[in-house]
UniProtKB/TrEMBL annotation:
GO molecular function per UniProt: transmembrane transporter activity
Listed Pfam families: MFS_1
InterPro entries cross-referenced by the UniProt entry: MFS, MFS_dom, MFS_Efflux_Transporters, MFS_trans_sf
Predominant cellular place of this UniProt entry's protein: membrane
Major facilitator superfamily (MFS) profile domain span: 1-383
Bilayer topology annotation: Multi-pass membrane protein
Transmembrane segment boundaries: 25-43, 55-75, 81-103, 115-137, 143-164, 230-252, 264-282, 288-314, 326-349, 355-376
GO cellular component: plasma membrane
Subcellular location: Cell membrane
Record protein name field: MFS transporter permease
């Protein structure tokens, strides 16, 4: 995870050094999740056939190569685009296949908690990515920061290779049809309710994660005094991700004890409403803006683990890999489009104006608001499935 948000953490630096427009920066930030969306159907569905541990190790290798490419190759828009695309494929080989490896190695009432903790740990990886990359880049430059990220991915490969036992995929023999035959998953209206809501969620989440540092940097432009290192934009992104992790775990627990669809819908509506106003808060005193950003980051993440856990729990046992693949494919397509749409709106309205940032975040909020609407329209069938 260390390299996943390295580019967003250093977006102001890359924009200046590479002469990127907001649209180009949005492409590089978002293409990571396009690479994820393209690779995840094959890599995750394959976990219905072979041990997810092997897929994870392949993904970690791709992630390492992507980061090392940033560290060693000449920079520029096209180089960054290609390497971020490769990194997205690496994430596709680690994130959901890692979840499948966990599911195949756990059972019983504690499995739901393990799934929630695993998905919430995405935010822990995000926070470490922002913090470590920001600190190392400040001390030794962004190429060293990317080299460190590549070594971390290789360490993950070794840990999984040595630490996980060999496992035959659960229910593999019961899985009919071709590897990429996702029609039974698309026909499952309950599962697709969570999947479509996840699209809206990732649109918002990755737009926020990709542009958060740049937004806070914009808000600080021209300030008489600059904040301490612990309140810098990259530091706030780190604390935001930690707040998001806590919110995700709390939301998952709340959803498991009550109406999962209702919990996710209320959380999604709250974060969408916050998105409509957060961009217009740039002129506020910096401490106030930071408080609003921490609250927004937490609200965005409340339904994250709950949505993924819901899709996994109601999936057909022999199609868990295929269900996770569809969930990730559609969800992370939103992760690609959200940052790109943000950059397009920012360029169109003028990135040096508060109005532009307000409109860009509002664009995020409008799409995010579709998730709660979808869950609300399918609440009865979802309640039946969980019963």
């Amino acid at each position: 995870m260390l390299g996943v948000f390295a580019f967003p953490a250093l977006l102001p630096t890359f924009s200046a050094e590479w002469g990127l427009t907001a649209t180009q920066a949005g492409w590089i930030a978002g293409i990571h999740f396009a690479g994820y969306a393209v690779a995840v159907p094959v890599l995750t569905a394959t976990t219905d056939r072979i041990d997810a541990k092997r897929i994870y190790m392949f993904g970690a290798l791709l992630a390492a190569l992507s980061c090392m490419g940033f560290a060693l190759l000449p920079g520029g828009f096209w180089t960054g685009l290609a390497l971020r695309l490769m990194g997205g494929a690496g994430l596709a080989g680690t994130y959901m296949p890692g979840l499948r490896a966990l599911v195949d190695r756990t059972s019983g009432p504690r499995q739901t908690a393990w799934i929630s903790w695993y998905t919430a740990s995405f935010s822990l990886g995000t926070s470490v990515s922002f913090l470590a990359v920001g600190v190392v880049a400040e001390l030794w430059g962004w190429r060293v920061a990317y080299g460190m990220s590549g070594l971390a991915a290789l360490a993950a490969l070794g840990l999984v290779g040595l630490g996980l036992s060999k496992e035959t995929p659960a229910q593999a023999s019961a899985t009919p049809g071709a590897l990429l035959d996702f029609r039974p998953v698309f026909a499952n209206r309950a599962v697709m309710g969570y999947v479509l809501a996840y699209f809206a969620h990732t649109w918002e989440l990755f737009a926020l994660r990709s542009w958060q540092v740049a937004f806070l940097t914009f808000a600080l432009a021209g300030a008489a005094t600059q904040p301490s290192v612990w309140a810098s934009p990259t530091a706030i992104a780190t604390w935001s991700a930690l707040a998001a992790m806590a919110a995700s775990i709390w939301g998952a627990g709340l959803a498991s004890r009550g109406d999962r669809a209702r919990t996710c819908a209320v959380a999604g509506a709250a974060s969408a409403a916050m998105a409509l106003v957060i961009g217009f808060m740039a002129p506020l005193p910096y401490p106030w803006l930071v408080a609003a950003m921490l609250l927004y980051s937490a609200l965005v993440q409340v339904d994250s683990a709950a949505l993924t856990t819901g899709a996994v729990l109601i999936a057909e046992p022999g199609r868990r890999g295929a269900t996770i693949a569809v969930h990730s494919l559609i969800g992370f397509t939103g992760g690609f489009l959200g940052p790109l749409a943000f950059g397009l709106v920012l360029d169109a309205a003028g990135p040096d104006r508060t109005l532009a940032w307000g409109l860009a975040f509002a664009c995020v909020g409008l799409v995010a608001g579709l998730g709660p609407l979808i869950l609300w329209t399918r609440r009865h069938i979802l309640a039946t499935k969980h019963d």
